[in-house]
Design goal:
12-stranded antiparallel β-sheet; alpha+beta
Length: about 220
Amino acid sequence: MAIQSTAGILFQTAHESRYTWDENFPGYAADVQLLQEGEVYTGKIQIDSNLNVEITGVADKQIEAGIDIQLQEIVTRCQRSNFQTTYSQHEFSLGETAETDTVKVFVKSETTDSCYNIHNQKICQEIRVMGRMALEINSGEFLDTDSGYLPSAYHVIFRNSQTSDVNSILKFTDTYQKFGDYYILTKQVVAEYEDGKIETPQSITEFIYSNIKLLESDN
């Protein structure tokens, strides 16, 4: 069923304007270096054409798990999906329009309630409530590619959905580079703040990807 409401069309336009890898994406391999608390960890990663993640050569299993989580998030962000298939059972409604022409859209499903702020056909804020946890993603800067936009500076706030108390804040700075026809993350800096205090980060983690090579296409 096609989504006809104004709210649904606004959200669909912003959603489909995001940068994603197309169906010909061959996957890529790279060296990874993780810097955390003065320690340096190295290894190799691969994301294949089916978007399966493989990590090898990382000595610390906890660090390997952290790299896997980050790569899975990249896959989720860049994976192309059919909007109608994903959101056909969702309800859309409009909220207020701010003076900056930012439009608020509410998206409801059986399991989650989400709220999005949309500006210039970009999703600049997402608030998602899942049980006792509320997740707020605020995007301040974007990379505008020839095939859509990617958030490049954003912060994520984790709250108790019942009390609104802030548990932690993560600030991300992402760097992308184009390889062949595809934009790939080459560096991500993550600053973590606890208890809502943003003066000094509790920790800073850097993911650096080098020697990036697209895999041979199966086509």
